[in-house]
Design goal:
About 15% of the residues lie in helices and about 25% in strands. By secondary structure, the chain is of the alpha+beta class. The protein has one domain. The longest helix has 12 residues. The radius of gyration is 11 Å and the shape is globular. The two termini are about 15 Å apart. About 20% of the residues are buried. Bound molecules: zinc ion (ZN). The site of zinc ion has 8 residues, from loops.
Length: about 70
Amino acid sequence: MRIQGKELPIYPEHPVRVVCLEHLERELDDYVDKYEVAPDTFALSEVDEPGLSHSCMVCGAEGKIVLLHVKGM
Ligand SMILES: [Zn+2]
């Protein structure tokens, strides 16, 4: 996963989620509940990944934040 211009390894068993600001808190809570890790968060504009959705996974609005779990962070 290319983030802030660097290639960072992520845990493949922990998903990548894109959300709008409105749904950020809820998805953070959900991520912790489901995967028992606190995700790392980046602005969508910092993440350069082909095929990554640019829409909120909850409501379909413009995505702002990416939740994922970087190895070693
Ligand atoms: Zn949303």
